[in-house]
Every structure is written in structure tokens, then in C-alpha cells.
Amino acid sequence: MDLDGRPDRWWRGRNKQRDTAFCQSIYGNGLRVAEWASVVIPELPPYDRRRHYYACHLSGACAKGGYGHPYWTPQNAMKGVAMSASRGCAWSLPFTGPSSVILESDRGLHGDSREVGAEDHTTALALLDERRVTLAQARVRTVNQLPALMRDLLPGGAPAQLSADQAATLLRAVRPAGDVEKVRTDLARDLVAEIRTLDKRLTENRACMQALVEAADSTLMSTPGIGPVMAVRLIGRVGRASRFPTAAAFANYADAAPVEIASADKARHRLSRSGDRQLNSVLHTIAVVQIRMPNSPGHAYYQRKLSEGKTAKEAKRCLKRRLADHVWRVMLGDERRIKCRLTATA
């Protein structure tokens, strides 16, 4: 809004490049808020109206979509608020002055808000994915503790990459010579038992994932590189694909839409880091798998981009962008098909 309180949609700020990073980024998460605030806010007196003007747009820039709705609040209330999605950022900064602005963007226009409704299969899949991440992290921590004990128990140490069965076989040959070695042996056996338990739980988790994905009638696993774990992560984190109006909006949300970095007369592109990094990780995994599969469509697309003169990173970036479009179309088709089937049976 302008200094008189009128909404100004085309505000650009003092620095076009910094403002573009916020206001023109549909799914930015405002990681540079502290830098912006340190440059803009302290230069103005506490009671200067321009201070609230910049605070207003600084808050709106952090919000998803870049623009928000103004609400005037009483004096001494919280002055700058940046509202974003559940995986975005929230920023607040106390100001002193006669007026203030609180903004919240209409995130529904950009697919970054979820309707409140009954829990469905997407919630169950998200819970399974969260549990799998916890189990995998616990397994990594346990496996990393085992080599330190095995190194002191076996002459010459043990191989760095050990499975639970291999470690158990090596421990059966150990004859503790004292209390210290006995404690080390017992701890190593406990770690082996924990690894086996975690492996069993991970296997059960994967089987449950596959059963729920098949029960949800999802066709994501027909795409090369997408198995039960990747399908569950996609469905659990995306939810309804229809909340994204276009494939470009989904790609932006999944961090797969390149952003331009212009310097002088050179124009370069890199991946945005302002979206859902977990979704971006899934797309990266699918891209790597398809690149290694000679008969996959992703491999052919990747080779075609290399033949056009692009570097390996640029070609992979293009493939991830193409995969984001494909995943959105598949999920949207599944959602519409299930909706039509439920409507027909109702």
C-alpha cells in the first residue's frame, strides 16, 4: 500500500533485485528477511510513516504470493508479521509508532493452503513417511556407532561397511579378555540387535506403504524411478494436486522451477531453494534413477539435452522440471478419477 494506506500492487521497493526475490516469488520462504530488515528498517526514524510502509511490504514479501491484505491495528500491537504456509517462515519484528500493518496473503490462489476437512489416505501416508524417516535416521546413528566398537575388538579392525549379519558373525569369534572387552562385546551385540529390529520395522513400514498406495488406486508407481517410498512421500507432502492451479505452480512449490541469476550481460539459471526441499529431494532421486535407466523416457530426455550443449547439471535441472510436470499431471488425474468414481457410486 502507499503512504496514505491505499493498496499498491505494483510496489517495487528500493532495490528491484531484492524485491523480486520476495514479492515476485510465488513460493518464497523469506530466508533473506533478516538482511532486508537490517538494510531498510534501521535507516528510518521510529515514528516515520515510511518505516511502516517498508515494514508492510517486507512482511508481504515474506508471505506466499508476495501480496497480502492490509489490516490496521491499534498502537503498540505487533507491527510486522509475515504469514506463510506450514513449511514456510513466520517473521515478526516489534516497531513503535502510531500505526501498523499485519498482512496475510491469499495462499489458496497458489495452492499453498490446505482445506480443513476429514483426514483421508494422504494423512495416513504422511504419517508412514514421517515414521520411516525417523526409523532411517535411528538406523544410521546405530550403524555409525558399531565400527568404533568393532575396531577395538578385532585385530586390524573391521570393514567400514558391515551388515548386521556380518557383524554378528565377527562377534561370535571374539573372546573377551577382561571387563573392558566384555562391555565392548555386549554393547556391540546390543547395537546389532537394534539394527536388526530397525531393519524389520523398515521392511514392515515399506509393506504398509505399498498396501496403502495400492488401496488409494494411485498410478504414480507406473513411472520409472517411483517406488512405494517415493510415491508415499509425494502423496503425503502434496496432498491434493488440484490445489495447485497449474503445473508451473507445483514445480515452483517443489523447488523444481529454475530462477534466473543475472549479472551484467550474463544470464544464468539455478534451482530455487525457497520451496519444499523434501519434494525436491524426491524429484532429484527420480531423475537420477531415470538417468541410469537406458530405456526410460528420462534417460532419452537427459541425453537430448546434453546433445543440445547443456552441461550435466543443466540437463538434470531440465529433467527435474519435466518430472515435476509429469508428477502433477499423474496425481491430478488420479484425484479426478477417484472423485468421478465416488460421485458415480453416491
Automatic annotation (TrEMBL):
GO-annotated biological processes: DNA transposition
GO molecular function: DNA binding; transposase activity
InterPro entries noted in UniProt: Transpos_IS110 (IPR047650), Transposase_20 (IPR003346)
Organism: Streptomyces europaeiscabiei
Residues covered by the Transposase IS116/IS110/IS902 C-terminal domain: 218-303
Name of the protein: Transposase
Pfam families for the chain: Transposase_20
